[in-house]
Each structure stands twice: as structure tokens, then as C-alpha cells.
């Protein structure tokens, strides 16, 4: 598997970093992923599949451009911190009972029309 990390503007080849990962040799599962400011419109598959994630920073992207993209996070049951600030989000279709360990949810700088049910039940 190859993971490509690049800045949002992609003006220079130096802005892109490529990491090749042999899945069979990965022993330590990463529990923190920071993908802030990458102009992401979708959540990468390697993030959605990492059920051991505890901290996820997706701030300052473009996740609001794709409807219901945030619902792709539902398998990340171990999240304790989720930063979705500055993503052009208008709604958050998440069932927060799916995140029993979530303590911090950052939604600043979005265009939210309402807050999701269960948001007051965060730890």
C-alpha cells in the first residue's frame, strides 16, 4: 500500500510525500492521524479502516463538498478526539452513540444548520 501526503496546492513536487507500507509488516497501528489543510473532499480509505484511531484531525479541508462524507467515520469507535473544524460542513449526520469514548469534538468554522442528536452526551 502507498500513502501519499500532499499539500492542497500541489504546486511543487516537494510538497508531496509518499510512504510505502507493507501491510504484513505493520505491527504498531497508528492511533493518531493529522490531515489538516490537505484540501480533502473525501476521507481516505486508510483512515476509515483504522479502527484503532483515537485522535483524528481533519480540520481545514473541504469535506462539506461531498454529502454525508462524515458518516464514513462511523467505524472509528475508539476516537477520543475528532477535529472537523473549517470543512464547509452544513450538517453532521453522525450518531454520537457510536463513539463511546469521544471526549472532544471540534466543529468551529463550519456552516452548521443544526447540531446532531446525542452531541450533548459526549464525555
Describe the structure.
Helix content is 3%, strand content 18%. Helix 1 links the parallel strand 3 and strand 4. The protein has one helix spanning 45-48; strands at 2-6, 16-20, 32-34, 55-57, 81-83, 104-106. The longest helix has 4 residues, at 45-48. The N and C termini lie far apart (35 Å). 19% of the residues are buried. It is built from one helix and six strands. The strands form two sheets. A four-stranded parallel β-sheet has the order 3-4-5-6, with no helix packed on it. The protein has a two-stranded antiparallel sheet with strand order 1-2. By secondary structure, the chain is mainly β. Keywords: Leucine-rich repeat, Repeat. InterPro entries: Leu-rich_rpt, Leu-rich_rpt_typical-subtyp, LRR_dom_sf, LRR_domain-containing. It holds the Pfam family LRR_1.
Amino acid at each position: 500500500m502507498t500513502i501519499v501526503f500532499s499539500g492542497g496546492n500541489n504546486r511543487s513536487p516537494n510538497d508531496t510525500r509518499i510512504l510505502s507500507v507493507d501491510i504484513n509488516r505493520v505491527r504498531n497501528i497508528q492511533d493518531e492521524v493529522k490531515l489538516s489543510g490537505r484540501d480533502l473532499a473525501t476521507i481516505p480509505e486508510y483512515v476509515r479502516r483504522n479502527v484503532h484511531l483515537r485522535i483524528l484531525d481533519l480540520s481545514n479541508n473541504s469535506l462539506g463538498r461531498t454529502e454525508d462524507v462524515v458518516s464514513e467515520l462511523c467505524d472509528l469507535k475508539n476516537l477520543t478526539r475528532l477535529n472537523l473544524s473549517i470543512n464547509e460542513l452544513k450538517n453532521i449526520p453522525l450518531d454520537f452513540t457510536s463513539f463511546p469514548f469521544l471526549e472532544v469534538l471540534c466543529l468551529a468554522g463550519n456552516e452548521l444548520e443544526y447540531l446532531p442528536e446525542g452531541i450533548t452526551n459526549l464525555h
